[in-house]
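[DERIVE STRUCTURE TOKENS]
===
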Amino acid sequence: GGSVTITFQVTVDNPPNLTLLNPPRVENQGTVTADGGISVLTDDTEPTLPGAADKTRTLIDLYGTTTTVNSSGSPSDEGDPVTFTATVAPNNLPFAPPGGTIPTGTVQFLDGATPITCNEGSTSIQTLNVSGQAMCTTSALTSVASPHTINVNYVGDGNFDPSNGNTTHVINACTQNPVVINTNDSGAGSLREALATVCTAPNNNVTFNIPTGDPGFSGGVYTITLASELVVAKNVNITGPNSVTNTNPIVVSGNN
């Protein structure tokens, strides 16, 4: 008839993804079996009643994390591939968790609230590597009035809390494969405008389709006379002479 208390401790060496639980917790229940076949579930206040609903519940305080996001370069042109890199790091580690000091799991890349389809696996959800990093490359961002806000959400793992990070990225409007249609030094349809507005190579080209009635056409040659140096500020292909149906050569004159 005496009272017996049995104390035990369970150590969770490799917890599951506790961040999926609200709150993060572990639960356990053991069975004490005595001579004579008497079996009692632990933490059971009444041995004659089932103890299945009387588990030992331990709340877990996971390590905090910080998620940072960097882009491969802002601003960029429409159509250019941009790579966003997310890094998830622990805030502090008073001692090393059993699963290691680098957060594991996945992150999701979003343009604002819209998932980004990354070239890596054609999904917005990417797995952290052994350095706690994940990358997302896309060419689908378009030019908008405000910079894009790229959000990254880390889901957490058995040792580390979720966290969020973001960065901004500017997309410049550009012209896909502009065509030069006159010999003017500047303005609409000129070579200077095409160089200023063309999207970057190798997927874009500046070509020519200047009519024979253009003032710069003389002696079977088109002459573009410059008032100042042409600015070539990006990687660009310039393909001449003229169109397939008009193969007269084109001369760019520095005007002495």
Remarks:
- The chain has one helix and 20 strands.
